[in-house]
């Protein structure tokens, strides 16, 4: 933890090329898998444990390549990491589509179960898109810490730290230009949370076309979950 402004200039992981810790990414991925496993069977397109097992099979080699910190990136690592987040996003959006279809065309009786399923889909949506932003922005978590800043790919998102160089000293000392700050998983999960609750960007702006498209899909999915699914479930309860 950075304890002072002076530390902010020298203790950022980029200065030591230590990379992001592996554990947070593993934990949120396992949470997303657990939420999917807990969905009602009618929302699943395959036997309950098929997709979760496939996701775990993708996760294991990723942990083996970078067991503690994300410092090594190979073609295989990049392919597996992108395939994993794509699978999580696709399975959750499919579950949302089935859930909406069930509400519109089926005679739903169990409103309480529907509320729980809607919450699971919404939470998984936050995790899935947070992981997607984390994997794509500026080349991914490995490149963001291991490559010199001048060699980083174009940014998909503009964080407030990226433009705080001319602020008051206590703010500027933690900015990208001063302390070599780069976003971590928590920052991308925050983007996902705010996009799923406000249905639009807040303090972090999308820059690339793919970032805008992804945020649009996420916000529409969150809006459908909030307005259609939960509203219908509450009406069934009453």
Structure, described:
The chain has 238 residues and is mostly helical. The protein is built from eleven helices and two strands. The protein has helices spanning 5-10, 13-16, 23-37, 50-65, 75-105, 111-136, 141-146, 169-172, 176-179, 185-198, 209-237; strands at residues 157-158, 205-206. A two-stranded antiparallel sheet has the order 1-2. It is globular and about 60 Å long.
Taking the sheet with the most strands, its summary is: 2 strands, antiparallel
- Tell me the strand percentage band: under 5%
The arrangement of helices and strands along the chain is: HHHHHHHEHHHEH
Count of helical regions: 11
Structural class: mainly alpha
Brief characterization of the structure:
With 238 residues, the chain is mainly alpha-helical. 65% of the residues lie in helices and 2% in strands. The protein has eleven helices and two strands; from the N terminus they run αααααααβαααβα.
